[in-house]
Amino acid sequence: MTLFVLLAGFALTAAGQGTTPRPAPTEVPRGSRAPLRPNPFIELPLGAIRPQGWLREMLLRQKTGATGRLDQLYPLVMNQRNGWLGGDGDQWERGPYWIDGLLPLAYLLDDPELIAKTKPWVEWAIASQQPDGYFGPSKDYGPEPGIQRNNSRDWWPKMVMLKILKQYYSASGDPRVIRLMTNYFRYQLKELPQKPLDHWTFWARYRGADNLMVVYWLYNITGDRFLLDLGDLIHRQTFDYTDAFLNTDLLARPGSIHCVNLAQGIKAPAVYYQHHPDKKYLDATRKGFADLRKFNGMAHGLYGGDEALHGNNPTQGSELCSAVEMMFSLETILAVTGDPAYADQLEKVAFNALPAQVSDDFMTRQYFQQANQVMATRHIRNFDVNHGGTDLCFGLLSGYPCCTSNMHQGWPKFVQNLWYATPDGGVAALVYSPSEVKTTVGKGIPVSVKEETGYPFGETIRFTVNVETGGKAVSFPFHLRIPGWCRKGSVKINGKVWKEAPGNQLVKVERAWQSGDVVELELPMHLFRNTWYENSVSVERGPLTYALKLGESARPVKNEKDPIDYGATYEEIRPTTPWNYALIQVPDDQLNEAFRVEKARPVSDFPWNPESAPLLIRTRARRIPSWGLYNEMTGPIPYSITYQLETAPELEEITLIPYGCTNLRISQFPVVRK
């Protein structure tokens, strides 16, 4: 087994002694330290991947939006009183949540201003370590409106800060991170038997995989054997997702588990699999996703969880924290298992649910989104948890402010997981978006690959290879994913077809590469349908779900009722065009005639709103007069196909646009006969 060797000679053995030099962005790990199982894909150092095109624009909007300005926009929690800056204010998760997104954003953009914003948080966390190894806030304070000042010693917020420090080390090589983690993990090994993960609150018990994954990461660097014992202890104290997925009705039972706990915990079997490679952990992960889709899934790629698990009615909510945490879990599972199906699911969430739930300027967001959402207004709905009825409103603090703090990690970590290193000395592009990667291959040879694409709207992905060998060719494998929805993908090298392959597999291109070589990946997209709650149907193409384009009327609301809880302002959105349409039943072999795909405009720097949607689909539909508003939502969706359901006599042409471009929508349609 190849140990955790850095191709540029990075001295891992010195890490524990604090003499590790700062790694260059091209230095790449190529394996795991025994007895950990080698993963098929290995995360690159933070900064090795740079976003381009629309994806870079998303990050720039985060910089000028709430991510870069949350200390100004949310000073009650993010100011100098925060406990993670040594103050007497908020002690718990919200401060670390923000930095968990701000820090990778700062280094991906190589932005000195943003990096400077992260420094006080990192420095205070490192300096806070006590002689026994504990770090972080340690003193509780009395209640104060709008902030969480108790449970300062809870294990859970430390897990978020560990993720931050791991990313900081990836970007900087600061040896103090290794010392802090080593000492803290010794502290955990000593304290957890008496004060288990759920000693202060129950959250850490369900989110222990976030702790465990950093323990294994550190073991790969230092080789300290006590870390493996700690890993087993953390796993024993973490909720048993493996048994729950394989042997219980957890995912079939409404209210059984918190939606974000599930989004984070679903990776627990795969994380533990790295040390205990029993097939049951992979089986549990697959079954967990299958059952989640079956009993709670929706067309946007997530599930009913508002906040407890709540079935698959398309008017149930899905929390924004679930979106970004599920993305991170999928990124983790993909690297551990190498299964391309998890990349498909990652893209489904990233290209549908995530952009629809955050405003264009990244200043406001929804706490919950609905797959069928026709009024984003303040109103009490059939959610497990309601926050003054503000959960669907677009605001900075509407719903609950955990998402205000946590939404920032979604796009930066997505960028960080577009590309991977591979144990065979190669590079892998498993998730697709415009970007450029700089890394090393073979025996430490620097290379860069530029990815140009209009994906997920376009079908072609163009990779241009540059090798820094003074004109000499260099051999290395280049791994590419053919998504499961693609019937047959095509790989061209310098204009000539190299291979055609069906979907749901990885293709390995192994050859001698020269600067200027071009790989073109063609992923033909076809229309298909999925069936959901009450036999409703979604229309999909490639990684995108399409939804009814609605006219919208937005109204800002000044909140004079409860501004501390839900923000001084928020925005309500109401429809100005009909929404109660049913699709016409057509056989699968006639989809292309019934649904006409049109290119509306080129893919712009920001394609994620109704006005900028690059693609649209036109089809005919009938309105259902009995399907009306109920409780400021769509009423119960008619079953497909309801016998003798009354429909409007006229056929109307409707327009569908990508789900991620919508604010209001129908994405799960009833179906009627002609």
Task: Kindly list the characteristics that best describe this protein.
674 residues; alpha+beta; 8-stranded mixed beta sheet; 20 helices; disordered N terminus
What is the CA-atom radius of gyration, in angstroms? 25 Å
Distance between the termini: 62 Å
**What is the number of E strands?**
29
Q: How much strand content do the residues show?
A: 15-25%
**Main sheet attributes: strand count, strand direction, barrel closure:** 8 strands, mixed
The outline comes out as globular
Helix/strand structural class: alpha+beta
- Secondary structure: helix percent: 25-40%
Please report the number of helical segments. Answer: 20
Mean pLDDT across residues: 95
- Low-confidence sequence ranges: 1-26
Q: Explain this structure to me?
A:
By secondary structure, the protein is an alpha+beta fold. It has 20 helices and 29 strands. The model is unreliable at 1-26 (pLDDT under 50).
Concise structural overview:
Helix content is about 30%, strand content about 20%.
Q: What is the strand and helix layout of this fold?
A:
Layout: E1 42-43, E2 49-51, H1 53-64, H2 66-73, H3 75-78, H4 94-108, H5 112-127, H6 155-172, H7 175-191, H8 203-206, H9 208-222, H10 226-237, H11 241-247, H12 259-265, H13 268-273, H14 279-296, E3 318-319, H15 320-337, H16 340-356, E4 368-369, E5 372-373, E6 394-395, H17 402-406, H18 410-416, E7 419-421, E8 427-429, E9 435-441, E10 445-453, E11 460-467, E12 474-482, E13 489-493, E14 496-501, E15 505-513, E16 518-522, E17 527-531, E18 537-541, E19 544-548, E20 552-558, H19 563-566, E21 569-575, E22 581-584, H20 591-594, E23 596-599, E24 615-623, E25 629-630, E26 633-634, E27 652-658, E28 665-666, E29 671-672
Parallel strand pairs: 8-12, 22-29
Antiparallel strand pairs: 1-7, 2-9, 3-4, 5-28, 6-21, 7-8, 9-10, 10-11, 11-16, 12-15, 13-14, 13-16, 17-18, 18-19, 19-27, 20-21, 22-24, 23-24, 24-27, 25-26
